[in-house]
Amino acid sequence: MKPKKIYLNQDCLKNPFFSKLKIDNYEIIKDEKDFLRNCRLSIDEAKENLFITNNKGSFIKACPGTKYYNCCGYQILNIACFCNMDCSYCILQSYFKNPILTFFLNYERLQEELETKFQENKIHRFGTGEFTDSLIWENIFPISQILIEKFATQSNSILEIKTKSTNIDKLLNLKHNQKTIISWSLNTKKIIEEEERNTSFLEERLKAAKKCEEAGYKLAFHFDPIFIYENHIEDYKNIIDLLFLKFDDKNIVYISFGTFRFIKDLSKTIEMRFENSIIHLGEFIEGIDGKKRYFKPLRINTYKNIISHVQKYSKNIALYFCMEDDEVWKKVFGYKPSSKGSIKKILDDAVIKHCKLK
Amino acid sequence: MFQVGKISIEDINLKDKSFLISPTSSAKKIAKSIQKVGLITLPILKKENGKYKIVAGFKRIFALKILKQKITYAKIINANNLDALKIAICSNSYHRQLNIIEKSNAVLKLSDFLNEEEILQADIKFKLNLELSHKLINDIITFSKLDKSIKRAVAKDKIAFNNAVKLAKMQKDERCALAKILFLFPTTFSKEKEIIQHILEISKINKTKISEIIKEAKNDNAQENLNTLRDWLKKKRYPNMYNYLKNLEEDIKKIKLNNNVKIFPNKHLEKEGLNISFSFKNIKELEKALEEIKKIKETRILNQ
Description:
The complex is a heterodimer. Chain A is α/β, with parallel strands linked by helices. Helix content of chain A is 34%, strand content 21%. Chain A has helices spanning 32-37, 43-46, 92-95, 107-119, 143-151, 189-195, 202-214, 232-246, 264-273, 296-313, 326-333, 343-355, and strands spanning 5-9, 27-29, 49-53, 60-62, 75-77, 80-81, 86-87, 101-104, 124-127, 157-163, 180-185, 196-197, 218-226, 252-259, 261-262, 284-286, 292-294, 318-321. Chain B contains 14 helices and seven strands. Chain B has a five-stranded mixed sheet with strand order 1-5-3-4-2. Chain B has a two-stranded antiparallel ribbon with strand order 6-7.
């Protein structure tokens, strides 16, 4: 990440982690509230401006999920907000009122929150890739490197680093103790080319994942969002062929699937910022949570085809849907999540097995 | 700011429309009223180069012309053109909500003097009652570039303003092709919006010109009436959903339920299951309806 302009909350100057920041020129912000109130950046500008500050709220948040559809019970480590990659479908474009790349420096409090969780007698799955891409921050602050080594010292939690990048070189020699899963969001060549600006190509992502596998990391993959277009099933099947050609299924902890869904406001943003994109013009209906989703029989058909292809290669990987209802689960997997406890239970069991959690 | 004066109608420049906000219509009705009770509200005029410009009261002045009056009393204002325009807007919007054509006239005339932000501020500060927003100002400016026939249709409530703005953003030949369809099938604004939206989306998805889509609809005999056109567009825009729901509808029809029993899916099939509704007036009818419902067990719709 090379932001054009960096702003630093003056409170961060006293922060014990300030010396780890790799920044040269920055403007000191004395009044954060005033700064953010007057921060009226376009989305393009917001992707080039960085604000380093302290997280005033909780670092750990439960994934908000959505009404009616099944959630996986993942917990978000809110290390940063927004992203300098530029995917047409990204919800972050509509999520923040006054967007700007934001990094939280008060890692000492994140550490405290984690310590409390590490003491608990239950399994936790944490991830940093919900409000940002996990690996875009390393040349500003080595947050993933610090977190990986932190997670290596405990045995009830896993850290998931989710990315579309290839910035993994500095992670390869770390002591991770298999408590970190590095995951890639995958999509077809057509979608990456047309809809995912400033991200790495599919082959590059898979190459990076291979290096991580060789470094002993456990892996995960996310087919989310899946787009329905002419011959999309063949395109997604091709990625699956590549995956099982390249990786040992014993090293893949889970694979998630989710077809494209979006809040209505995102359509306007796509039309304004991605004039040629037609991803929002599929056969969408309004879901029970108010989000637009592909017509259910189309989703089920897509999932059935893609997932049966995965199952031809392996039956050992935990497969799950992000935000689908019981009917979809039953028609594709043959069971409802509740019959196996919950999605959380399915994934907890997978990480216990792969990452030797206790 | 003004004084009442006796003015010769010949001294009024009837061709000047600098301050005209409401499109002029026949003044015969108001002429009759003036003949009966006299001129109750005085027109407002502004003197310029020895002649008078009408600021407010265009219809009244024309009515006086019809009545062949030579002289009238009027309020003469001493104001610059911008202030005179504000007075013209207020005199129209004071008693009633301006329609979109009048708002459009007001905004376009104000834009000769003020930028977008100043227009918004003037609306609030001088209580012009235009109820503007940035979006509306932009839409009005877009709308102003439209062909007269479409503007006229908006003025006559035959096309919604918002729909006209969408047309204004298209290339002229595409716009004309679409407007032709809208003129052919006058309907409610919401159905009009649906037609425009479906055509625009089909055009974008298939990278096809609007005129070609309309031609295709004609070749498929979809232009018989409004419903055939809407149905054709739905099928074209949502082919899988359309076919799926049509098949389901057919399957339900095959059960041949009596009229008092109806079976229908949840909205968009997002929630699992089907709904049944039935009506009855007495036990006998209830028993009959329940017998009807049993028929569903023998069909394939529950296995879909």
